[in-house]
């Protein structure tokens, strides 16, 4: 394995910071600094505070989901430890270049120190990210089906001519198939891998440890956590005067949140705002409101960052 030097890592972090700031500055220039400034200064404090509270609740739900994944891998960590460790990872992601990479690596390292081997510890973090993306896609797809059937006129610039029924039916089938896919992979994939390599041992553990029960648990936890996260984004939108129904914001949040997680910038800044402006333009949302909503939502992670300074609770029986 080739290790990078501290100087090389520093250069990469600097480049990512520059890319993030340059993208954000270019977007702000295109939209208009004064337009975004007026949008943010006129934000409703009550809606903004509600969004911050929902963002914290969403991260709490994500911490519970991660702990459930760790238990699926037959390792136990106390709930206070999982909550603080997850929030510390969120804090690192918010202040370090590289989007979600830094905090996730730290979570895997911290979990290894509790006694779980490195392949299982790192798998828990990767699976947690995949579970979140899975829940986001299911939520966005399900809401898109409902919105197409109830309010297809809102997609004036997106949906081709014709009735929305066939589109909604096709999307509904895709959502059901995606919901069932992890369980099907667990049932069919354990035989080929068989845990023969130590890095695939976690797969055999998942497949042999009550997969149906844990699959349902991850399904509910991931969709629920993403629903609260979208609610936080919606509250930020309400704060800046964005009148967009929650069930339309949920499908739009899929590319927005994916763009924020790309490891090309710092804390999702720039990529998240660019995705918000591009995607919400399809729903006739003014770019200043889209960018203002995204900036306010990004600020929630920064406001939570001090929680990462909380001391990590000791494991029972640790010295």
Automatic annotation (TrEMBL):
Cell location: Cell membrane
GO cellular component: plasma membrane
Signal sequence extent: none
InterPro entries named among the record's database cross-references: L-PG_synthase/AglD
Assigned keywords, A-Z: Cell membrane, Membrane, Transmembrane, Transmembrane helix
Protein name: Lysylphosphatidylglycerol synthase-like protein
Annotated organism of origin: Tepidimonas ignava
Keyword Cytoplasm: no
Pfam families the record matches: LPG_synthase_TM (PF03706)
Superkingdom classification of source: Bacteria
UniProt membrane topology term: Multi-pass membrane protein
Major subcellular location class: membrane
